[in-house]
Amino acid sequence: MIPPGDLIQTVNGGTAYATFLTLVLAASTPLFNASSIAANVIGATNDLTRNVAVRSWSHNLAVTVGIGANAWDQLTGLPRPAELRPFEAINGSQYAPATPGDIFYHIRSDRPDLPFEFERQLIDQFNGSVKVQDKVTGFRYFDARALQGFVDGTSNPVGSLIDPATRVNGSIDPNGAGGSYLLTQKYSVNLDKWNQLPTDQQEKVFGRTKPDNIELPDQAPADQKPHKQLTTVIVNGTQHDIVRDNMPFGDPSEDEFGCFFIGYSAAVWVLQQMLDNMFIGVPPGKYDRLLDFTAAETGNYWFVPSLEMLLTIGGN
Ligand code: HEM
Ligand SMILES: *[C@@H]1O[C@H](CO)[C@@H](O)[C@H](O)[C@H]1NC(C)=O
Ligand SMILES: *[C@@H]1O[C@H](CO)[C@@H](O)[C@H](O)[C@H]1NC(C)=O
Ligand SMILES: *[C@@H]1O[C@H](CO)[C@@H](O)[C@H](O)[C@H]1NC(C)=O
Ligand SMILES: *[C@@H]1O[C@H](CO)[C@@H](O)[C@H](O)[C@H]1NC(C)=O
Fold it and tell me: How much distance in Å is there from the Cα of 100 to the middle of ligand 3?
């Protein structure tokens, strides 16, 4: 159970449901200052979360809010975290688009009505100061599997390793102290094409066995490396982990299948290195074969303020 008081910053999820809400600021008028209204709502996120979470603490409503680089100054008035920047499209062996977004809400719970109620009250409070750019509702799929059938999230840091991997070290970057950089990408999955690939080939794509999630040995240097190898970032002998909480989403009747990727990190360069390895390849050209079956449709970087920083945003 998530302890009261740390609702915003709990990033190691594992909940049954999640809503991923990407918002853009509406236009302001002389009588309607959109960014000032939105800033008040953002700064009150912890109160709003409690209002809803208290109705069933045991179902782990947890909310984090991220702010995009282009909206940071007007929404927060705070000095910029060192690595805060917009996501830039990657045009490598595969393509990753950059898409609009000023504010992002990651809303998780073990039952669907709590995220629904949080979103309802949130949108009410924004009172027209934001427009919804994108909204995805994801669900836990069997034993934490992606729609491709593989267990997702195994290598996430746990326990005392979460904070060093996800929170900015204040002595390196005082403006970001205690907060987290966040990458979100909505992917569509071509399940028909993927399911035509024999299981032993699928296992080579991820670098793990499908039924029981056992790690396979790394590929020979000449081969296209598996996903798990391309996303392992080791610099100067130190491995840099991130915390992911991806969720499948979709609508079989509409032939819609997807994966919402979400990764929290203490550093943007770690996220960018993983993306470059996947989309450009190692060496360039030897990209992540997952991307032959899975296409990125959105791309955003966010900064998630620490609870302490969040409480200074808006006119609270
Ligand atoms: C649709 C997109 C994606 C799917 C379905 C997916 C799925 C998976 C799966 C099944 C694993 C192996 C099990 C595990 O350790 O969790 C994995 C590992 C991993 N993925 Fe992804 N992934 C996706 C995109 C990404 C992206 C965009 C990044 C980073 C920018 C990323 C970063 C990682 C990392 C860091 C690991 C762990 C590597 C290790 O240390 O073993 N993934 N992913
Ligand atoms: C990606 O680069 C290729 C080759 O330089 C170019 O033809 C293509 O238009 C680019 N795609 C996008 C979406 O910018
Ligand atoms: C919501 O915005 C409208 C203007 O669009 C304003 O008249 C109204 O007072 C606002 N409501 C709240 C609760 O701020
Ligand atoms: C933060 O960085 C400083 C300077 O590199 C280092 O001495 C300290 O151990 C780091 N703190 C944490 C919690 O990692
Ligand atoms: C790795 O070491 C080099 C040389 O000492 C240094 O310039 C670089 O900043 C280090 N990289 C990281 C991520 O620590």
Answer: 25
